Amino acid sequence: MKKLLLIVFVLLSISTFGQGFLHRDGQNIIDGNGKNIVLRGLGLGGWMVQEGYMLQTGAFAGPQHKIKQKITDVIGAKNTEEFYQAYKANGITKRDIDSLAAWGFNSIRLPMHYNLYTPSLETEKEGEITWLEEGFKMTDDLLSWCADNNIYLILDLHAAPGGQGKDAAISDYDDSKPSLWESAANQDKMVALWKKLAERYKDNPWIGAYDIINEPNWNFTGTNQNGCDETSNAPLKALQVRITNAIREVDKNHLIFIEGNCWGNNYNGMFPLWDENMALSFHKYWNTNGTASIQNMLDYRTRYNVPIWLGESGENSNVWFEQAISLMESNNIGWAFWPMKKIENLAGVTSVTKTPDYDKLLKYWQNQGEKPNTDFAKKTLMQIAEDYKMEHLTIRYDVIDAMFRQVQTNETKKYKDHPLPGKIYAAEYDLGQNGYAYWDKDIANYDGTKFTKWNKGGFMRNDGVDIELCNDTTTNGFHVAYIEDGEWLQYTVDVEKQTTFDVAIRYASNVAEGKLYLEDKKGRLSKSITIPSSGGLNNWKTVILKKVILKPGIHKIKVHFEKGNFNLNYMEFRNSRK
Fold first, then answer.
1. String of DSSP letters for 269-305
2. Are residues 288 and 426 in the same domain?
3. Judgement on whether residues 152 and 301 belong to the same structural domain of the protein
4. Which pTM was predicted?
5. Total domains in the fold of the chain
């Protein structure tokens, strides 16, 4: 009897445990309780796989192997290894994952480089596949931090053996060596790696899914080098079927994401699907956010009764983020944005500060300066590695606000306390959507064929408002620039008692065309004031807007720019002199 009870208990435990895994239910992804789940994720790009644009080396070193060679040339192999150990140790820590959970993310996509888990073919004995502990240990640690925060970890093979695409920086592809598609041995290694990962994590429900190949972009029979005109994609399907079968030999539990050619979006020839617990991943950059932009994926979902997931997106404005996420969630599509960290990252949740010394090193690499000595270069690179720690990052709260709060409401929220009398810096306008917290004419990049700047200055915030560094004697470091006719900014202010204010407008202009006025929800608070020329866009002067009356309480004041062509540093509300 005891033996029978033990067997029943074990079977119930296995059944209960198995229910904890994310899995497909028709066209939905559901959790262990059978509830629909919308994955709200972030990709940890740059940690295991460096891409040149994230380190500002893209113009001369895009793939990681070229970045590493540049570093080795200035500090030597031993110092380079020391740098990479610090970079990886600091790049993602438990504090990072704790922060992502606190901000609202419920999943993480881990872009993996195969060479942290298994050596390259060139260093293996013929026909042999061996393993490296480093990548598995990094993944284990990350998984434990995710589990502590109830966050799902999605494993993404970002750099496959040999490289899976002509867009070299993405997969660390080296065109002097056989690619994934030109080497059966590389494919064997990739299959073995996924089976090894599945064996290791088969019983862990906090592994959300296996994203088995990131952004393949390769021409098999077509003319487009990135596979965008492929009609069959036979090698891509065959490899993903083979990997799926290898995973299922040891792991029946986990959801599998597949990706099409052409950076994940060309699914020609990929149907019918070959596994019951599978979903389609697609990637979305630099296009519009209407239903038409995802209609083909919606059609696949319906036609093949399969879930779809936006596996990668980002690198755009807050307006675009809010629109894209709203589109996804209104269609029950989960998402993972990109990336968490890069140097001078405006369009992400965090940013690593570029040091002046690192700028010197970049200029040398671009043939614009003398070669630095080893000590200088090593110190510079080790400082960059140190600055990847969460405690040194700039957190972009405006981006976080756009991705979560602004998706739910068009209500505005104060960026900073503004008690009056006092000074309001122009760049500290309210958090919120365009048309509610501010109005700007250039708000996002919707065209993948040409780049449109939304923040033309490129500093401080990721909205359409154009913000530059400020050289005025009194400043928070930034000013609003490129002001166009009809644009406006809103500020939440707090007035203790009814006061008549004179407002000092601190501006710079090289033309006498500017004009602005103040208003709140009840109407105009002031007359229009003309902004005369100050003699240049970095020559700061002040004009006074007189007799602005504010009652006690919280006010949302809009600064309307009837005419632009000037820079705005701040507005200082002073008690009016009778």
1. T--S---SSEEEEEEE-SS--SGGGGHHHHHHHHHHT
2. no
3. yes
4. 0.94
5. 2
